[in-house]
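[step 3/7] fold_predict: job queued, chain A
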Amino acid sequence: MCWDAAERIRDGVRETPVEPSPALSERTGARVHLKLENYQRTGSFKLRGALNALLSLDEPTRARGVVAASSGNHGAAVACAAASAACEALIFVPEGSAPSKLEAVRTLGAEVRVVGEDCLFAEQAARLHATEHGMTYLSPYNDERVVAGQGTIGVELERQLPHVDAVCTSMGGGGLISGIGGYLKSLRPNTEVLAFSPAHSCVMHASLEAGEILDLPSEPTLSDGTAGGVEADSITFELCRQIVDESFLVSEEEIAAAMRTVLRQHHMLIEGAAGVAVAGFLKASAETDRWCERDVVIVLCGANVDPEVLKKVL
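[step 4/7] structure written:
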């Protein structure tokens, strides 16, 4: 599925570069590589899944429009994909979403509606609207077409690096890690897939520990791109159970420190969700040396940080 998705979205996304990180390699003993999805169009990996899902629809279905729910990045991705296909897009967002991300969604031509205090409420409202108006709901993670689209990052990594021992990503709804991890493990089953979540919002992490999808509250976090609940029927829960080898939590202070590290050492802007993956690997590496002299990829999943948030982080 990922190969098909890669061909389908090839003209609409960037093949993002991989960059070695001498600073992170020195700190951890691993050979650390950064997959720069912060350079992706719309500033986030989310465009891959949204575009693959939308382009998988037939023309009459696309003509009726699409609906999505998002704290920002998925909404911008759906808006961008819809604009390229001359398709109407309506995005439901939770209260407290970053103003800069909502502005990006509107600039791309989509209508924005604010509903509820959590992504889960926005998702429920979006699904209901889609059903009532004959539109197609595009989930940010609970859709095999979206998961396959995110997995195209793995397709690129296979071409870009001769070997990957471990891949590190942030984990929210589980679409990113399921897509990349599933593809890489299909090639090399021994590839380690490491998931990292903010302690303030870690529903999938807690659900994996409990063995069932939990309904848990989330606190505000710098990693707004991974924040919120997980749908009760999400396909990504079972995928994560099969694919994720270890899951770790990081604090807000660790996320902020990681964002500053990438800015200082690589002169790149990343958002909190990307900082989660960097912070998590640094934390995990301090507890074990098993990745020493091994090739590790950290996925920098996006760059869309609100200016006021960045100001506080710096």
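[step 5/7] annotate
Strands lie at 18-20, 31-36, 66-69, 89-93, 111-114, 136-138, 166-170, 192-198, 246-250, 295-300.
The chain has a mean pLDDT of 94.
exit 0
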